[in-house]
Specification:
Blueprint lengths: L8 E3 L2 E3 L3 E3 L16 H8 L5 E8 L16 H16 L4 E6 L16 E2 L8 E4 L2 E4 L4 E2 L5 H17 L4 E5 L5 H6 L14 H4 L1 H14 L4 E5 L13 H15 L3 E5 L16 H7 L3 E5 L4 H9 L5 E4 L1 H5 L3 H7 L28
Parallel strand pairs: 3-4, 3-14, 4-5, 5-10, 6-9, 10-11, 11-12, 12-13, 13-14
Antiparallel strand pairs: 1-2, 7-8
Helix pairs in contact: 1-2, 3-6, 6-7
Length: 360
Amino acid sequence: MDMNLLTPFKLGDIELSNRMVMAPMTRCRAIEGNVPNPLAVNYYRQRSSTGLIITEGSQVSTQGVGYVRTPGIHSAEQVAGWKRVTDAVHKAGGKIFLQLWHVGRVSHPDFLGGALPVAPSALPFEGEVHTPQGKKKFVIPRALELDEIPGVIEQFRKGAENAKAAGFDGVEIHGANGYLLDQFLRDGSNKRTDKYGGSLQNRVRLPLEVTEAVADIWGADRVGYRISPHFSSYSMSDTNPRQTFSYFAKELNDVRLGYVHIIEPVGGRMGAITQDERFAPTIHEIFEGALILNGGYDARSGNEAIEKGEADLISFGVLFLANSDLPLRFMKNAPLNSADVATFYAGEDKGYIDYPELGN
């Protein structure tokens, strides 16, 4: 059978109805206590015809918060809020993973009761953060003490446990976009001299220990890991990214992880990279689990990537944001709604659950 976006896929022991994935997208609509907005029940249910939904990043602790109105997975109220979401998605026949998130240094004392954000190293970095008190420059974080690191691993483990209690089908670890685990992995942000810094073997230690702790809760085939080798905002860099991410992918094989989700811009809003700059083919060759590609794909380029065997699944962000029935639109070659950028991170139902579906 010819493979394309609309053919089924087996992810571990989970039967996915198609190879389309809804990418995790921060929407900044959580309510008091970083509880998922009741509107999120409808938002995710509307999109349950995709093979797999990956939720917006959900912080594993209060220390992991770095954005206004983002949901968490560390309180009973948050778990109850997410349970309403998973129940609705499952009732509609969908599959849904929660993304486990700790922003590390990409935060501000305004979110942390006056405390400094944590990071592998106390380094200045570029950028601004939208705090509850308005836009502010990032502060220099404090380096995590060696004896604090088991506590960070426990935050992820507990988040994984809570995601199970909330009825998810699995979890994705957010190791991308300059957040805490990415900060430990790359040598531009990790200048430690203990067993969590320096050599590549040391820099992968925390991401791997977190992955093992989460896999212990879920079983490795129900766990994914997201990476972004080309990400350079927040002063992120690495001396040899191809070597770093290839080595990490090889180490993930020992955990027998379900999938790696790589952000690699091929077009669209993100600005494409050249074929020579791509890491995905190398990762696909090394990593033995499923590969999800993300980065400006549409129906044509997504189908092409599946047909060529470049990936097992393709994730779509903005297209899913504006088109809750995206698989049907791809199947019928129907026109797509345009996304309203002004409501990506603001508003309630507007730009969230009110995009028209086909026939409406």
